[in-house]
Amino acid sequence: MSETLNIRQALAKYKKIIQPIRGISMLPMLNEGKDAVELVAVSGRLEKYDLVLFQRKNGQLVLHRIIAVKKSYYLICGDNSTAVEKVPEESIIAVASGFYKDGKYVSCQDEDYLTYVRDRWEDFSSRKLIKKDSGNAGRDTYEADADRTRYAVRKQGRIRYLGSRVFIPYHQMCMEYPCLWKLPFLLPVFWAVRLVSALFVSNKRRKLKTELTALAPSKKNKNG
Description:
Blueprint: H1 2-14, E1 16-20, E2 36-41, E3 51-55, E4 61-69, E5 73-77, E6 83-88, E7 92-101, E8 104-107, H2 111-123, E9 130-132, H3 145-156, H4 158-166, H5 170-176, H6 187-200, H7 202-215, H8 219-223
Parallel strand pairs: 6-9
Antiparallel strand pairs: 1-2, 2-7, 3-4, 3-7, 4-5, 5-6, 7-8
Helix pairs in contact: 2-5, 3-4, 3-7, 6-7
């Protein structure tokens, strides 16, 4: 509670604050230990895709995105999450006005950023979103990857799904590799870099293994 109070006090005094990123739920846009978000106080109703800081029933502070606006609450989910939370208006502490990606400031009104958000959520429209009580939510999403993959494969087919995972849209790639904003012609090179890193970076390798397992035909299908 004291952390929440300090943030509210800081916003009242300084109008905006910079907070470092913790956790993986906003990947690939925001990386823990590298990036930070610029927060301002909430004034009026928020909009779909706004990035907000809110407090769960257990006191935990979370930075996630609004994916639906309701009469007195919001449905909120991380860009890298599957758990959707119903968050009352009064639980919202601040809204992002911008963020620092690899030291570069990006406004939340930036057209490239807004395109990234739309691409990200269109690309993840096949996610198996799970509604959770906000008091019990909070786990990260690796354990849900297999279910997500199977669901997406059923919707898209294996070949189309694999293509969408390797050749992700340009604006998403820019969030992982910011130099692409200035050097878009290197996009094919960084697709290859992304694929190679999946084989050698431990957390990406784990995710790749999970997806390949989910992609493999089941014994039931093989025998039947």
